[in-house]
Specification:
alpha+beta, Sulfite Reductase Hemoprotein, domain 1, Sulfite Reductase Hemoprotein, domain 2, 18 helices, 34% helix, binds siroheme, binds iron/sulfur cluster
């Protein structure tokens, strides 16, 4: 007997291209929630149903339904946004959401706390600002990421244009979004509507694409389902190395799930990018596992098929023979902060702790950035690491931008390098999957780590540190030199030893530690690093070289290391 399809497959199939009963769900005045099946479908429209977890117990005691609210995620290919769009999102956040904007690890905006009866207006207003939310979530290609860091100007613009082209090519064709949120005329026969790339049941699972421009690995290219690494020769974009099969998510204790780095398929010319991407997507559509959503990402498809068979399938479908990959060299993950001047215009990368654009005390990012946008002094490029680049600032406006930043407490006292590099996912109180604090904890934890390195004579050592509230991996924790992954309130699994340039994952090191225990475990390692490191050697590289953790190659090896640790067999270095 064949394994039944996952229930989400039935919901997608019956949905008439993502319509379901969303119109009826939205109109129901008796509940702040959507019907169960519609909570799955609404993700494809860029919306998640959530409830405020800080209020859960209180509401339960009062016999009230949970405080239902919605998270809305925009689609912003490459994170490129105009001042007018920034202003619109700011206004929408303050009118319909919780008054903050959340910049995400995939270069877009999330709004939290939108209640059901404001959903439609909110989505319509986002569209009015020439942004949308279609396919920001769901079993489709998500927001396409692209390096925001300086590179030869014309080549960078060309790479960014590919982010938009890939996004356009892989956007679902259903008119459901326009009918439900934008009141456009329903089509007369949905049975005749075509989804030429996805088909009626879309992909088995979410799908993610990124484009990187070496030596910057700000998009964490090896964490993507599909990555294009720009090959720039003499200042011109020649083509791309193609990598596939990356992903971060796993489940604690389920060793058939694991994070995995993408592997190299080969090199393609610029003209072949869309063909190759479409072939990878349709291969995943047809070969991906639709029975078990925990085994449905492309990384498991590549693992099951084997890289050679996967590459052959993609080449056949694309009608493209991939050439041997070109040499590439990455130097770092994360963003480069402060001013960069190139070709007559200036760019300022602003550190935004955990991507939360708000006003807190003297740090008034919401108001300061609003003032810059109001005066149209810059474009706003959202980075892959929850920060924002104020881009294309005319030379004559530079001093005015500096003045506004200073007046709002932005960019004057530089945060430590570790703080600037740190990532934390959203976690509590909105994420329904969080097991421990992340965004609300990271600032304090970085202070402890900075103190630890300082105590050992290493003030301001650049260390990549990432915290997530659960092992789904939204802040790409398995690519950090130090990662905390939530296990239970106040308890984290500790992972150590990823490469600073994002080319090697970390290794499972200890389980379910509280903060005191984490710092006790780290202290002797930091002491040894301070004493034994080679010139310029990063913490993660040292931990591997000195044999404190193994160099993990591949997702299966990661899972084996996690299993050994859970079974009490320790860390095999
Ligand atoms: Fe994520 C689910 C937030 C990037 C892997 N992610 C979620 C949800 C929607 C929780 C849920 O399903 O109910 C979180 C909403 C929290 C909230 O309250 O806002 C959430 N993910 C985020 C964001 C906002 C984290 C952030 O702090 O910036 C990021 C939004 C990205 C975007 O703009 O599109 C975000 N999520 C990621 C990344 C990083 C990336 O894509 O580069 C990953 C790891 C890479 C990957 O996909 O493998 C990631 N999110 C997941 C997973 C695990 C998927 C898996 O293969 O197992 C889930 C859970 C799921 O899909 O079942 C998840
Ligand atoms: Fe939520 Fe887990 Fe993602 Fe954090 S990593 S936002 S806790 S799903």
């Amino acid at each position: 007997m064949s394994t039944p399809l996952s229930p989400v497959e039935d919901i997608k199939l019956a949905s008439r291209h993502l319509r379901g009963s969303l119109v009826e769900s939205l109109a129901d005045p008796l509940t702040g929630a959507l019907r169960d099946d519609d909570t799955q479908l609404v993700k494809f429209h860029g919306i998640y149903q959530q409830d405020d977890r800080d209020l859960r117990n209180e509401r339960r005691q009062q016999r009230l339904e949970p405080a239902y609210q919605f998270m809305i995620r925009a689609r912003v290919p490459g994170g490129i946004c105009t001042a007018a769009q920034w202003l619109a999102m700011d206004r929408i956040a303050c009118t319909h959401a919780n008054g903050t904007m959340r910049l995400t690890t995939r270069q877009t905006f999330q709004l939290h706390g939108v209640i059901k009866r404001r959903l439609k207006t909110t989505i319509a207003e986002i569209n009015h600002a020439l942004l949308d939310t279609l396919a920001a979530c769901g079993d489709v290609n998500r927001n396409v990421m692209c390096s925001t860091l300086p590179a030869p100007v014309s080549a960078r613009a060309e790479v960014t244009a590919f982010a938009t082209a890939l996004s356009d090519q892989l956007t679902p064709r259903t008119r459901a979004y326009h009918e439900i949120w934008l009141d456009q005329q329903p089509i007369s026969n949905t049975a005749e509507e075509l989804e030429p790339i996805y088909g009626d049941t879309y992909l088995p699972r979410k799908f993610k694409i990124g484009l990187a421009v070496p030596p910057d690995n700000d998009v964490d290219i090896y964490s993507q389902d599909l990555g294009f690494i720009a090959i720039i020769e003499h200042g011109q974009l020649a083509g791309f190395n193609v990598v596939a099969g990356g992903g971060m998510g796993m489940t604690h204790g389920e060793h058939a799930t694991y994070p995995r780095l993408a592997e190299t398929l080969g090199y393609c010319a610029k003209t072949e990018v869309l063909k190759v991407a479409t072939a990878v997507v349709t291969t995943q559509r047809d070969f991906g596992d639709r029975t078990n959503r925990k085994h449905a990402r492309l990384k498991y498809t590549v693992e099951s098929m084997g890289l050679e068979a996967f590459r052959a399938e993609v080449e056949t479908r694309a009608g493209v023979r991939l050439a041997p990959a070109r040499d590439i060299h990455f130097t770092h993950t994360g963003d480069r902060f402060g001013w960069h001047v190139e070709a007559g215009s200036a760019h300022f990368t602003l550190f935004v702790e955990s991507g939360r654009v708000t006003d807190v005390g003297a740090w008034r990012a919401l108001t300061g950035l609003r003032e810059i946008a109001n005066a149209a002094l810059a474009d706003f490029h959202l980075t892959p690491n929850q920060n924002v680049v104020l881009a294309n600032i005319a030379a004559s406006n530079r001093s005015r931008v500096t003045e506004i930043l200073t007046q709002h407490g932005l960019g004057t006292d530089r945060a430590s390098q570790t703080r600037q590099l740190a990532l934390a996912c959203v976690g509590f109180p909105t994420c329904g999957l969080a097991m421990a604090e992340s965004e609300r904890y990271v600032a304090d934890f970085v202070t402890r780590i900075d103190a630890l390195f300082s105590d050992h004579g290493l003030p301001d050592a650049p260390v990549t540190l990432r915290i997530t509230g659960c092992p789904n991996g939204c802040a790409r924790p398995f690519l950090a030199e130090i990662a905390l992954v939530g296990k239970a309130p106040g308890r984290y699994n500790l992972y150590l030893g990823a490469a600073f340039d994002g080319t090697r994952m970390n290794a499972p090191y200890r389980e379910a530690l509280n903060e005191t225990e984490i710092l006790e475990v780290l202290a002797p390692l930091v002491a040894r690093y301070a004493a034994e490191r080679e010139s310029g050697e990063h913490f993660g590289d040292y931990l591997v070289r000195a044999g404190h953790v193994p160099a993990i190659v591949g997702g299966v090896a990661f899972a084996a290391a996690a299993q050994a640790l859970a079974a009490g067999r320790g860390v095999a270095a």
